[in-house]
Amino acid sequence: MPGLFRAAEALFAAALLAVVTACGSRLPERAFDASPDPAGAGREPLRVGIIASATSPVGGAAFDGPGEGARAYFDAVNARGGIDGRRVEVVTCDDGGSGVGNNACVHRLIDEHKVFALVATTVLDYAGAPRVSRAGVPDIGGQPIGTAYDTYPHLYGIYGSDAPRTGEAPGWDGTLYGGTEVYRWFKRHQGARTAAVVSYNQASSAVYARLVARGLEAEGYRVVSEQLDFALPNFRAVAADIGRSGADLVFDALDAHGNARLCKAMDDVGTRVTAKVTNVQNWNSAVPRDYQDAPGCRNALWATGASRNYQDTGHPAVREFRRAMGDGELSQWQLEGWAAAMWFTDAARSCSAGLTRACVERYLNRPEPYTARGLLLPVSFRHLEEPPATRRACLSVARWQDGRGWVTQGGDMNHNCFRVPQIPYRPQ
Fold first, then answer.
1. 154 backbone φψ class: left, alpha, beta (φ>0; ψ -120 to 50)
2. Distance (Å, rounded) from C-alpha 210 to C-alpha 228?
3. Is residue 75 part of a domain?
4. The whole model's pTM is what?
5. Domain check: are 59 and 134 in the same one?
6. Does residue 293 fall inside a structural domain?
7. Are 364 and 156 a contacting pair, CB within 8 Å?
8. Considering its fold, how many domains does the chain have in total?
9. Which residue ranges does the record assign to the Leucine-binding protein domain (predicted)?
10. What are the pLDDT tens digits along the chain (428 aa)?
């Protein structure tokens, strides 16, 4: 069960983006292209599918990262002889960011390409999730943008889940739970006591902001709520209010563009905070470009997540990931996609008596948590009938510094841990 901040931010993003711009259903021709078969196929290839909202309204690169990391891992597996002598054949599909497109991708991959499993799914609207579940196709290491990974059997999100996942309702009878470890960490390690939460006067944004405020209040913060007009936002006025409030931290329920504009406004009016806290989707090497007009706020960016910082080159698994990715832009989502492909590969290799979906799922459901050689915080699927009241939760924390990039904070992520309350919320 991911932390409250991580668990809900993706739900908010999906709902807000649906308001920002309508999702089209037309798919490009390349959406259904299979990766070319390399020479020397040998035994029958093992076919896996990757679905991403590559041409979603959010922008061309917003959902690409996990698939890029997964494909790089499978390339490395194939270079070493594949999985038990079988080359991994990756079939990709761009669903265009729409439910119609997602259903089309699911149909094409499962019914036509006959993929064995899906890996690193990253989509804006996972409308095809019930079909994947009914087909018994394991979906491994997907990003939980929405409630599918806390609802359906055979779906295994990258952060794990304690929910029963009966297919009837997300979480426990439609209620999800998340912890407050992010807020606890900043209170303990940075002495934060006051936090500003910025949202639009739009339903999805306001709901998420109230959820963040509840988590902060549970940790004893004084919360300053700021709201922007969705049509004509006055970022400078909100930035000035944040400065006058004496806030140590800033959390937001804004889209990526609004986030950057808020940062620029904070610089323009001279507002300085201990941390402008962002999430794993923005944990990437494009920060200097995305925040080029806000050097002060840029250097106050902090990110939290459940995977090891892609800049921690002292760790052997991170070094292997970076060698495979080359010299291009890097992101935390790429690292998590790499870990998802590793997870599938390890599960497949565990099937010494013969590769079956049932065998793969036994590995995924085993009692021992999975860590992807230390790239992930321990991931498990416990299927609890009742949600726990508290939970020991850990987190990965990094801070952006110009000239150094994302610098890990607070030591190893496996020791950034607290026992925190689990706060209920009902997704929209």
1. left
2. 14
3. yes
4. 0.91
5. yes
6. yes
7. yes
8. 2
9. 45-401
10. 556 555 566 656 555 555 544 333 333 334 434 444 343 345 899 999 999 999 987 765 779 999 999 999 999 999 999 999 999 999 999 999 999 999 999 999 999 999 999 999 999 999 999 999 999 999 999 999 889 999 999 999 999 999 999 999 999 999 999 999 999 999 999 999 999 999 999 888 888 899 999 999 999 999 999 999 999 999 999 999 999 999 999 999 888 788 899 999 999 999 999 999 988 888 999 999 999 999 999 999 999 999 999 999 999 999 999 999 999 999 999 999 999 999 999 999 999 999 999 999 999 999 999 999 999 999 999 999 999 999 999 999 999 999 999 999 999 999 999 999 999 998 86
Rounded Cα distance between 321 and 310, Å, is 8
Measured from the Cβ of residue 354, the count of other Cβ atoms closer than 10 Å reads 6
Distance (Å, rounded) from C-alpha 272 to C-alpha 409? 20
Type of residue numbered 138 = P
Burial of residue 399 (number of CB atoms within 10 Å: 0-12, 13-18, 19+): middle
Q: Tell me the C-alpha distance between 405 and 177, whole Å.
A: 32
Beta bridge pairs of residue 34: 91
